[in-house]
Design brief:
The chain is an alpha+beta fold. It contains 15 helices and 25 strands.
Length: 538
């Protein structure tokens, strides 16, 4: 795919030009921002936030269409290709000396997070939340790690960090805590969505996510060195917070907050972060990532990529994947495969090993994984629960799953994974699953008839015994060569009225010359095609 070097501001300009962003020039109370974004089908740029000196933008990747734009693609499926490109062909970042976010530098007592226009979101939030930070940390053994985490503002230079879920960032903080030392982090706010996607990808420990981001872009990500901590940050960011996770452990209340689950998360216990410095552009734009959809649309492609890789390793040929929005683009996947014997179960086991996937349905390649009715139909008509439902207890679970039992603080929860093999079972004839297809659907269109189309009437048949007998003989000669469905016989003899054809077939039945093959096609009684009469009682 073509290299993509667009920065945050250039993306905003492109949204504006495409009519995908509304500039709100009037004064707006910051307490109203989240609900206005939630109600809008466009991204919103608030130029005049009452009481603050900088504008706020939000909702920039809140829809499928804007996410496609952000990734430099023309359709949603291409995003997975970009991510795969980044994973397979990472490009190391490059460092620059004079990044634009260092035009203003505040440190020590000059740090005041309350001056940043950090909105409230839900009526249940524990406080203003920094939601769009690309966070970088370094571990002496494992190296640089990037991720995206939220920070609840507590004091002018103190926040919480939500790392209750097991991940590499939590591991880094845990190792620092056990060693009795701080864990420095940089928080880059106002980066291009590509940096957010790369940082959010759950790479193996020791893998630099900014290298993956470079692979996604096709060009290196520009990084810069922080002022007060020995860490890099995203050079093109609007602002960077330089901080340290204090070695106090998971002891401070954090939250509640509206999560990707579309539910209010509970109160979490987490460490706190001391902010040592804030660096920013002279005219910074504050980006407030709006939950849940700005998280959801970027999260799903990483699931697609991981599922596809797992199924490839299992030797299963995939037709399509749908990581469903109903499953929060995180927990549910529907996968269609070009199945060979036994591969329905193999596909389930492979897919359920991916990340925190909770429920997986595997279907045949005739099922549209994006059509919920089609998938449910496959489950209804192809599944036997004792044969096709797999339950795996005791698997790693995500703490944000509200269906889990309440666990003691610090205990990583486990839960069940469920797989449904909704493919046609081995030994079951596929013709059992031939869908209704109405005769002449390719020719008879309702729009044509609504516009006045008339069908020509065949020449009138003589309904006497001689003419019907002659037609019956003609039909018999045709079905002697190969069996035909009733509709095919009617089509073949379309120069006769349907009633005449029906009467001729009726005569063949009376004469005991007509039968059907195992697929229901008309054939000659006693021929090699004819279905055998079942033994009584079977």
């Amino acid at each position: 795919m073509a290299p993509f070097s667009e920065n945050f501001r250039e993306f905003l300009d492109r949204l504006r030009s495409a009519g995908e962003m509304i500039d709100m020039k009037q004064p707006v109370d910051i307490r109203h921002i989240a609900t206005l974004v939630d109600q809008s089908d466009k991204a919103l740029f608030f130029h005049n936030v009452i009481g603050y000196d900088m504008p706020v933008v939000s909702g920039i990747i809140r829809t499928r269409e804007r996410t496609i734009m952000a990734m430099g693609c023309t359709e949603y499926g291409e995003i997975e290709q970009r991510l795969r490109q980044g994973i397979d062909h990472p490009i190391p970042p490059r460092y620059i000396e004079t990044p634009p976010h260092k035009q203003v530098i505040m440190s020590g007592d000059d740090v005041d997070l309350f001056k940043l226009p950090i909105p409230m979101s839900s009526i249940y939030d524990g406080g203003p939340m920094i939601t769009a930070g690309v966070v970088m940390a370094n571990d002496p053994e494992y190296g640089l790690n990037s991720g995206c985490y939220r920070f609840m503002v507590k004091e002018k230079n103190l926040t919480g960090i939500d790392i209750v879920t097991p991940n590499n960032m939590r591991l880094y903080a845990q190792r620092a805590f056990e060693a009795g030392r701080v864990c420095p982090i940089s928080i880059s706010i106002g980066t291009h969505p590509m940096e957010i996607m790369g940082a959010n990808f759950r790479a193996p420990i020791g893998v630099d996510e900014m290298g993956i981001t470079g692979g996604i872009r096709g060009v290196p990500v520009d990084l810069a060195q922080c002022e007060t901590i020995d860490l890099p940050c995203v050079a093109e960011a609007e602002m960077v917070l330089e901080g340290e996770i204090l070695p106090v452990g998971w002891t401070n209340p954090e939250g509640r907050f509206g999560e990707f689950t579309r539910l209010m998360g509970g109160l979490h216990w987490n460490p706190v972060v001391r902010i040592k410095a804030v660096t920013m552009r002279r005219d910074p734009i504050y980006y407030a990532l709006h939950m849940p959809w700005e998280n959801t649309w970027l999260a799903a492609p990483s699931r697609y990529s991981a599922i596809r890789a797992a199924l490839k390793n299992a030797g299963v040929q995939v037709k399509d994947i749908n990581v469903t929005l109903g499953g929060c683009a995180f927990w549910h996947a529907v996968i269609s495969i070009k199945k060979q014997a036994g591969e329905g179960k193999n596909a389930l086991l492979a897919a359920l090993s991916v990340l925190d996937l909770k429920h997986v349905v595997v279907v045949d390649d005739d099922i549209d994984v994006h059509n919920a009715m089609d998938v449910e139909w496959a489950i209804a008509t192809r599944v036997q629960g004792d044969r096709d439902v797999i339950i795996i207890p005791g698997a790693r679970a995500k703490p944000l799953d509200p269906s889990l039992a309440v666990m003691p603080h610090g205990v990583v929860p486990t839960g069940a994974k469920v797989g449904i093999d909704a493919t046609i079972g081995e030994g079951i004839p596929r013709e059992r699953f031939e869908r209704i297809a109405y005769a002449y659907a390719d020719k008879a269109k309702i729009a044509d008839y609504a516009s006045g189309k008339r069908d020509p009437a065949p020449a009138k048949d003589a309904m006497n015994e001689t003419s019907i007998g002659a037609l019956a003989d003609a039909i018999l000669k045709v079905i002697e060569k190969e069996p035909l469905y009733y509709s095919a016989v009617a089509e073949h003899f379309g120069d006769h009225t349907f009633q005449a054809v029906a009467r001729a077939l009726g005569k063949l039945h009376v004469d005991e010359k007509l039968w059907q093959d195992p697929r229901g096609r008309l054939c000659v009684r006693g021929s090699v095609y004819a279905a055998k009469v079942p033994v009584r009682g079977n």
